[in-house]
């Protein structure tokens, strides 16, 4: 049992307000297990990352984040940017909860909170999971470039309470504008003589976990503790072909399709002829043309 309260970070707006509404319940669950927590609420994008880093640098050895993949993304960046190593606990309270799925954390927030409180109370050993890095940012679950990132950007603009279905709506909205392709040179594991891809693509997805956008089984075989990333490249496709591939993507049965290239990697360098959309864990990034990617094995201690 910790001597001082464990900081519990959350964005009250995460999951369309679910994280904020669950705070009192989370505190009660931890109290029942004899674990003191101290809520630290963010007021805007990026604050969780800064606050996590500051608390760890001030001596915190454990931190908890209650929220969706965006909040977890911030917390992971805060943990890895700190001067000392600290463990991270996760209570899923978002829309997709892709990282929680990848880590076999219960998607029932009460069960997840109770499981976490019990592990902290008995001093259970942490579990080490891999983290990806793209340029100067870390990602816990996935990096998407091209059409996938455009869909993510559109989905985040919708405030409808329809859960994961918002991504399907976003895909249909993006198809109205057409499926843009970009010319890219993709080098995997330093193999400059034999690029993994050279030419136009619809998207590139680099996965540490199996799920993207809550419902898309993008990399069914992904394991975030195997020291590797899954690189998936989709060749240029028509609107009609996107619609035909969607059901297979939802079931994780798309890898054998002619347009899909898949390989396991430890690093990649992606250069685009033009600046393109990208996302990290569902967080839209600035438009850019160069992506330097690597896996950091066992970089995160998961409570």
Write structural notes for this entry:
The chain is an alpha+beta fold and 303 residues long. It folds into 2 domains: 6-125, 3-Layer(aba) Sandwich (Rossmann fold); 138-295, Tumour Suppressor Smad4 (Sandwich), CATH 2.60.200.40. Helices cover 32% and strands 32% of the residues. It has helices at residues 14-21, 23-32, 47-57, 69-81, 98-102, 109-122, 147-157, 165-176, 239-251; strands at residues 6-10, 37-41, 62-67, 87-92, 127-134, 137-139, 142-146, 182-188, 197-201, 203-207, 229-234, 260-265, 267-276, 278-280, 283-284, 288-302. The strands form 2 sheets. Strands 1, 2, 3, 4, 5, 6, 8, 9, 13 and 16 form a 10-stranded mixed β-sheet that branches. A 6-stranded antiparallel β-sheet has the order 12-11-10-7-14-15. A hairpin with a 2-residue loop joins strand 14 (278-280) and strand 15. Helix 2 runs parallel beside helix 6 and helix 3 packs parallel to helix 4. The model has no long low-confidence stretch (mean pLDDT 92).
């Amino acid at each position: 049992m910790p001597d001082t309260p464990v900081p519990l970070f959350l964005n009250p707006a995460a999951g369309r307000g679910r994280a904020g509404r669950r705070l009192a319940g989370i505190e009660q669950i931890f109290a029942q297990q004899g674990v003191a927590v101290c809520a630290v609420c963010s007021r805007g994008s990026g604050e969780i990352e800064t606050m996590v880093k500051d608390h760890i640098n001030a001596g915190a050895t454990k931190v908890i984040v209650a929220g969706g993949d965006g909040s977890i993304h911030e917390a992971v960046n805060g943990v890895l940017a700190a001067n000392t190593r600290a463990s991270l606990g996760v209570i899923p309270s978002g829309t997709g909860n892709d990282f929680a799925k990848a880590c076999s954390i219960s998607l029932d927030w009460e069960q997840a909170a109770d499981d976490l409180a019990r592990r902290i109370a008995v001093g259970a050993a942490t579990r080490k999971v891999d983290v990806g890095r793209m340029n100067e940012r870390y990602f816990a679950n996935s990096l998407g470039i091209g059409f996938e990132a455009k869909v993510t950007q559109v989905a985040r603009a919708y405030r409808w309470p329809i859960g994961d279905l918002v991504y399907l709506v976003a895909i249909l909205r993006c198809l109205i504008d057409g499926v843009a392709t970009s010319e890219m040179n993709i080098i995997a594991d330093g193999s400059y003589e034999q690029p993994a891809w050279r030419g136009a693509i619809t998207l590139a997805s680099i996965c540490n976990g199996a799920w993207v956008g809550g419902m898309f089984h993008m990399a069914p075989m992904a394991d975030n503790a195997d020291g590797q990333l899954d690189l998936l490249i989709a060749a240029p496709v028509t609107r009609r072909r996107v619609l035909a591939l969607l059901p297979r993507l939802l079931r994780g049965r798309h890898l054998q399709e002619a347009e899909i290239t898949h390989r396991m990697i430890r690093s990649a360098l992606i250069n685009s002829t033009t600046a393109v959309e990208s996302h990290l864990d569902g967080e839209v990034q600035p438009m850019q043309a160069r992506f330097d990617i690597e896996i950091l094995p066992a970089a995160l201690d998961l409570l």
